[in-house]
Specification:
394 residues, 4-stranded antiparallel sheet, 14 helices, alpha+beta, 45% helix
């Protein structure tokens, strides 16, 4: 049988109300290795009708792996995540659906009904998120009349109560997770305002020595830096998706220590302990050795926050390596550290003949007060935890 035969028979069974038979037919297409996204989608629908959510999610993930903007698959994925109380990721999918739908010129009636439902659910999730956020901030001691103006403005922007001003930059601050209002615009941050940078540069040989030991003992700990997980909708493409050209070994990843790598790099770990790392549960810090292979390039992108700085200490650097942040490009030099605002569009390259390796980590911007750091930390931990607390309570 051809793929078309499987699809037509499976759809006929679904339309006749025989989901179990449809499931068998679509699964046979998969087993015969001739399933296309429409067969996988049929399998997802049949599995849902049978109440097998786990199988339906596997099938819809297979659709999205081939067609990241398949509207029907995105709706099913969002609904499945919502059913699992994964409110944050469900919102990501629903928002992507509405953005894609805005570009459609002809919307079928059934899809129009689904889009209305998605919009209603997003409004409900927004109300839940707002209540969750204020409960967590209140517990952290937030009082609007005592907080800084820029934090209050940023909170209003996060909740859609206020719009950002367009400051006219060619490469504006465009963080994915949180924008802090009224932060001075600077691609590369003045290192003279980071008194610890010179001491760190002075330890380049020691840090590179621990890196070399790690490479000798645990070279397999370097893995692709960019991952293609399906829990987030695929909005963009990158030439380095799951690529071995850009790999990393984490000492700290998303706020969690990697004990075996830390044990292999004790002096580097001790140096990091004295720095103003952004310690936000589930999000930061990230401290890692980042390796970019010869001839590789990291495509232009932006990061999560504009209230932190990404820091690089180059360790092994062939000629022809560099970094562009906004409109300014700089040559990478061994032992010469820099800090930059990664919410500004940036890219890196290695035009040399050997790998380029750096120590990468993130720190708070020094302009922030202690109270601002505390409130930003509480806010971002609340954002990260939205849906998880509710799910754990059921």
């Amino acid at each position: 049988m051809t793929e078309a035969d499987y699809f037509q028979q499976g759809i006929a069974e679904l339309q006749a109300g025989r989901a179990a038979q449809a499931l068998v037919i679509f699964q046979q297409a998969v087993d015969d290795q001739c399933a296309t996204p429409r067969c996988w989608l049929g399998l997802a629908l049949a599995a849902l009708t049978q109440g097998d959510v786990s199988e339906a999610e596997k099938a819809v993930d297979a659709v999205l792996a081939e067609e990241p903007h398949n509207m029907r698959a995105l709706i099913i994925k969002g609904d499945i995540l919502l059913g699992k109380d994964d409110f944050q990721n469900a919102s990501s999918y629903y928002n992507l659906i509405l953005r894609l739908a805005a570009n459609l010129t002809d919307v079928p009636p059934q899809l129009s009904s689904d889009l209305d439902r998605v919009e209603t659910r997003l409004q409900q999730l927004g109300q839940m998120f707002q209540q969750h956020l204020f409960d967590r901030l209140s517990a952290a001691g937030y009082r609007r009349n005592q907080a800084s103006t820029r934090f209050n403005n940023s909170l209003d922007m996060l909740l859609g109560r206020k719009q950002r001003k367009d400051l006219g930059h060619q490469f504006p601050q465009a963080p994915h997770a949180f924008y802090l209002d009224d932060m001075a615009y600077c691609g590369y941050f003045p290192t003279e305002q980071l008194p610890w940078m010179a001491d760190l540069e002075g330890h380049t040989d020691m840090i590179e020595g621990e890196l070399n030991t790690l490479l000798t003992q645990s070279a397999d700990r370097f893995s692709p830096y960019v991952h293609s997980g399906l829990e987030q909708p695929q909005n963009t493409e990158t030439t380095l998706l799951d690529s071995d050209d850009w790999t990393s070994a984490f000492l700290w990843q998303d706020g969690k220590p990697e004990s075996d790598i830390l044990a292999a790099c004790p002096e580097t770990d001790a140096l990091m302990a004295d720095l103003p790392l952004t310690r936000i549960s589930g999000l930061a810090p990230s401290v890692l050795f980042s390796k970019l292979d010869a001839g590789a390039k990291i495509d232009p992108h932006t990061g999560l926050l504009n209230c932190r700085l990404i820091c690089h200490l180059p360790l092994t650097v062939p000629p022809g390596c560099g970094l562009r942040v906004g409109e300014e490009s700089r040559e990478t030099q061994r032992g010469r550290g820099w800090a930059f605002d990664d919410s500004i569009n940036h890219e890196a390259w290695n035009n040399g003949e050997t790998p380029r390796t750096i120590l990468l980590f993130d720190v708070w911007r020094p302009e922030l007060s202690h109270d601002e750091r505390h409130l930003i930390t509480s806010l971002l931990e609340a954002v990260s935890g939205f849906g998880k607390v509710e799910a754990a309570a059921t």
